[in-house]
Please model this.
Amino acid sequence: MKKIVAYASLIACTLVVPAKSFADGEVNLYSARKEKLIKPLLDTFTKESGIKVNLVTAKAGPLLKRLQTEGVNSPADLFITTDAGRLHKANEAGVLQSVKSEALNTAIPAEYRDPAGVWYGLSLRARPIFYVKSKVKPEELSSYEDLADEKWKNRICIRGSSNIYNQSLVASMIANNGAEKTQAWANKFVKNLARKPKGGDRDQIKAAAAGECDIAIANTYYYGAMIHGKDEKQKKAADAVAIFWPNQADRGTHVNISGIAMTKASKNKANAQKLMEFLVTKESQNWYAQVNHEYPVVAAGEWSDTLKGWGEFKADSLNLSKLGELNKDASQLMDRAKWK
Ligand code: FE
Model:
């Protein structure tokens, strides 16, 4: 009897509640960042808003492919990935839509969001120079441009040109110095490399510490992870180097973001926007930045002790949408320079 009553009330519910309402309490997020870097924050959001977040994590490339394959039928409402260049590519692939939000525009400085409102920065990372303390004096360093000087011959480690971080760095140089000057720079810079580019950012720091090169270029959060991780070898390698903030006398050090965008297929737009806005509150920003040794993207965000230890620096204020716009030019320029 009880069973029948329950069944009857379930039918009644199904009849009176429009199907759409079942999705009202949810939002679907595709994230190219590791689950541990975002999940606790999503749990807090659910607790505060009552909106359940369904999280799918994978690498950036496959996630974008999935969004393209699923098209309008994609269950995804939001896409999180790193690098403004990647967000630009996703937009070019036609899987994103713009969002108009006072809260996002107020919280995030203009240079760290798309002018058309398609993507918004959630955290900031820098790509400075790391120098081997026993071999290089910081006074010998000045700018990315200076790394083309002959004095750095066979002394630089950097990863390959297929890497989006390097493409974005070069794109920022094209935006600031023009294509011709940047080509001339890249041609010389590549000749100063100590070895054929290989591995990730951490591998460049490890190679420098191991004596293969005197300076390395890498993103700051990798250095943070090496310092705080469990791998003693990586810790030792990180100890051998120090950060130099290039271009402090002019435009500032190259920075990039991890960011978020609403998918074109989104069926839970209101919830999706709520989550986007939650992620730029001061509390979210502090947590999100600190757990991955990144900088908060909002001015009110607090720096971790690790970041404070690296010192303040002037960041390039170029609107990061330029990195996407100039990505192809940057890639071709690097190919011409024979940057492997
Ligand atoms: Fe990375």
Observations:
- The CA atoms of residues 35 and 57 lie 6 Å apart.
